[in-house]
Amino acid sequence: MRATVFTLAILHSAAVLAVNARCGDVITIAGSELAPFHGTAIDRLALFACADNTCRPIPFQIDERDAVGRWVLDRGPEPNLDDPPGVLDANDALLFMAADAGKRANPIDLPGGTPAAEITVHDPFASTTRWVYLVTFADVAPRAEASYVHYDPATDRVRGRHVTLGFVDGMPGYLAVDDGPNLLDRLKVRASATFLFGLIHLSRSEADLRTSFMGWHAGPIRVVRGQRQWIRLGWGIHSPTFGSYTYFYPDAAQLPVSLRLNFPPTYFFGNIIVRAVLDFRDLRGWELIVPGMPDPIPIDGVMTPLKAALQQLPETWFALRGPEITLVQTLSVSPSLAATRRRLFYREDMTVEIPESIAGELPGIGYQLDRWEHVGSGVHELASDSYAVPSDLDVEAFMQARAVPLQVTIRGIRR
Fold first, then answer.
1. Is residue 399 part of a domain?
2. DSSP per-residue string spanning 124-166
């Protein structure tokens, strides 16, 4: 009997851990998978979760793309619209929180009419299955009042459940936990190379980045922020202009970057080094967690040999654990950049490195890419994903869950 109780306790603890590791997961379903609903006005659609023969609307949103595939940004200086607007199309996307899903329902308990669909969310990591229901109403559909994200265009900041992230001149420059102070000085993006067989050394920073804000779209699940950007290269010239989107979720942010090179970078440049570093103002009292180290490393303002050795690690993620929250940062690159060498960058240094708003880095942490010799022309992509998770969550388990995606299936139901 004791063995049985002990086994059940272990299984329960494992299930709780697995569920916690899914905190903040957002389900995204392409509009192409919702063919029966194509042409339906979005305000006539509702998403329901059920339990104990009762169904309630849950927060969701449908993000639209226009005719050329750009996300519809319906607010801001350069809004664009779908054709027709406010109607579900094949290139749109449905989003909702995985945690809001409920139990399986009997179709007769569902409100609304047809078409209707049952969406199954299975978690292979936790061995759990939950359901939500997309239904159509003859008139305006009911909506959940809750919203998990909020955007303030006056300050260019978006607030999730626990973290507020903001932009300064088009670059991340504000990060606060709940109502606390700004922890972030800036995101430093530094690139250096040699030109003319090493005779000329070139370097550029985020100060050379120019941006033009296009607009935003905000819903209860995420905020999409769009801008144009280009790099001032010097000598009166700048790089080609390209658009970029940043995605903010209740507990996460995604900053994808797409680069188009018309020729291999080493045709003209050598010794190329690209570095992206989060420069924090003062995280003393926090801890650094990296998969290559067995124990957390205290952040105390002292640069030790152990901390210096972090720059030899080819890791793809790190975490900063504070008293209230853990910030997890990942970096992925497209196969076209597989030939580059990726290393962590870490520094605790109070000296000034121009440009700075606050002197020093406590800490400065991010990634460095070098060895660009085998990178060719074409489009190359990098993606930086950030997560805010509870401070007591096992970060290793959280990252293991990232490697096991939720499985989503959709089937039409008869009423």
1. no
2. TTTTEEEEEEEEE-SSSPP--S--S-EEETTTTEEE-SSEEEE
CA 80 to chain centre: 23
Please check whether residues 57 and 156 belong to one and the same domain.
no
- The whole-angstrom separation of Cα 5 and Cα 216 is 53
Which tens digits make up the pLDDT trace of 97-145?
999 999 999 988 899 888 999 999 999 988 999 999 999 999 999 999 9
The angle subtended at Cα 32 by Cα 29 and Cα 38, nearest 5°, is 105
The number of domains in the chain is: 2
Nearest to 381 by CA among 247, 244, 275, 266: 244
DSSP 98-116: GGG-BB---GGG--SEEEE
Residue 32, helix vs strand vs coil: helix
Cα–Cα dist 369/360, whole Å: 22
Find out whether 317 and 399 touch, Cβ atoms under 8 Å.
yes
Band (64; pLDDT cuts 50, 70, 90): very high
Digit-coded pLDDT (tens) for 148-175: 999 999 999 999 999 999 998 888 899 9
CATH number at residue 290: 2.70.98
pTM exceeding the 0.85 threshold for the entire prediction: yes
Q: How far apart are CA 126 and CA 400, in angstroms?
A: 11
What average pLDDT does the structure give for the chain? 87
